[in-house]
Amino acid sequence: MITIIKYLMSLGLVFFALLVNGQNETTKTVDQMPQFPGCQETDQKSQKRCSHEKLIAFIQNNLKYPKEVEGKEEGTVMVNFVVSSKGTIKDISIKRSLNKIFDNEGIRVVELMNKKGIRWIPGKKDGKPIDVALSLPLKFKME
Question: Which long-range contacts (C-beta less than 8 Å, at least 24 apart) are formed by 61-64?
């Protein structure tokens, strides 16, 4: 049986963030990280947890173990992307490659967010929405 393990490194999926403002400048801090939609919790900690859980569910429902390499390889693909100030996904790239087939599946599932009309709650700096770059590890494993 083949399973794909998607994880957040503390809730099952880890984000490494680098902020990019509208002038293509980079900053190291953000007041509010982008959040996957669908969470209206009142406190920030609960909202963050809910956002991670919703993202994990999206990945679990949409990421597929590529049939071309079934049973031959396992590992992690690190996908970089930017959550724009408008909540859309852009600038998708591979930070750490496993192989082209797995890389393409990682890119496909991140691109799917835009195709399905999913709009993130943008990150904020000084109360204004900004672009935020994230890295998402996707682990493919045979079980």
Answer: 62/109, 62/112, 63/4, 63/6, 63/105, 63/106, 63/109, 63/138, 64/4, 64/105
